[in-house]
Amino acid sequence: MPETPLSRITSLDALKAATMACRECPIGEFATQSVIGEGKLKARLMLVGEQPGDQEDLAGHPFIGPAGKLLARALAAAGIPQEQTYVSNAVKHFKYELRGKRRIHKSPSQREISACQHWLEDEIALVKPAALVALGASAARSLIGRAVPVMVNRGQWLPRPDGREVLVTLHPSALLRVDAEDREPAFEAFVADLRQAQRLFAR
Is the pTM of this model over 0.90? Predict the structure, then answer.
């Protein structure tokens, strides 16, 4: 992996430019653009998903599709002010396979996640969050540095090597795949996980 000195990445604009040019794994060659995070610098909470989806890839903004709308609703229900958060992804490009003209999400490999690791760490260094939320297994592995069984650890805080805590939960897209009759209980359980971070916003 080529070295990327921290001194080169001093702003989100620089991170965007660097990730746009990144070809350390194959995903960047086929994506429309890189998608870095958005939100408040020095956020109390940084939420990290797996990778941008089709809509995010085209627009260049994270969490703007159905999963993003569900996440926004869950944050509101958990009493977490979205303007005090920052949202991003562990992988900065959209990985997909073509089915006819449709681009279908394909999970990144461990090598591809690892190739993006230093970009995520650069982003955390810029955002300086008080704590983080891992949305799904890929995000948890990237943030904590080891495999994390999400269903075992959901709703729990786990330590990062830098001393920050990471709240583990599902990716909101998982809730979109739940059967209709189970959707509301699944959403409430997701909100309950996120509510563990509400203490960060108490005055």
Answer: yes
- Three-class DSSP category at 18: helix
User: Using an 8 Å Cβ cutoff, are 95 and 112 in contact?
Assistant: yes
Q: What's the CATH number of domain 9-201, 3.40.50.2300, 3.90.79.10, 3.40.50.720, 3.40.470.10?
A: 3.40.470.10
Residue pair 125/132 in contact (Cβ under 8 Å)? The answer is no
The DSSP bridge partners found for residue 92 are none
Q: Where are the domains of the chain?
A: 9-201
Kindly report, residue by residue over 2-39, the tens digit of the pLDDT: 444 444 799 999 999 999 999 999 999 999 999 999 99
Quickly state the pLDDT bin for 201 (edges 50, 70, 90): confident
- Supply 38's token pair: 């958005």
